[in-house]
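Quick one, T. Sequence first:
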Amino acid sequence: MSEIDKDKIQNIFVIAITIAVIIFLLSVLFGVKYYYQPKPQETLKYNTFNFVKQGAIWYTNWQRNEKVYQIGLRHSPAEVEKIPIIGNFSNDFNKNNKIYISFDPFSDNKTFKHQATAASELTTQLSGPLGRKPTAACTKGEQVKACQNRPIVNCDNKDLNVVIIKAEEPTQILLNNTCITIQGKDDELVKAAEKTLYVWFNIIKPPTVPARI
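Structure tokens:
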């Protein structure tokens, strides 16, 4: 075999290898694009509101007066709409902007995470879009260190707006004039808090409206 023939064979081999590598890279590139396409966003239309789920949060736009707010909560209204609302509510709740978010300092430490999450959800939305003034409080326990610098507020304070966070079953929202008790165990407590918010936003319209903020 001549040197020219050897060079041709080598060139053909190099070209073949190059083409094979190119084909392999293209197949990998398009294969990755095919198999790893981003998942479409989960959406929900609830009444007149359009929700989009990003990560673990459901977002929608809500308008108060001329300003539009983006509302973000952990559960969609469809996930919390069946939580019962029991009792009667007073319109006096809207006469004072201050709302006490109160909890029992003697409750089980294991429930603290969900109590804190529920309180955070309420405080964020009340102080932002809803334009109220939430204040942290305790239902009892003046001698407890965590409550020494906080007001002691519960449903006995008839002249105050109070939201009590109660980490126990059953999951429900109890109305008592200007006092709301939001209760549930673990994540059900957070759901109950968010049901209350959806009602305040007028996104969920229950048979008995607990408040129009």
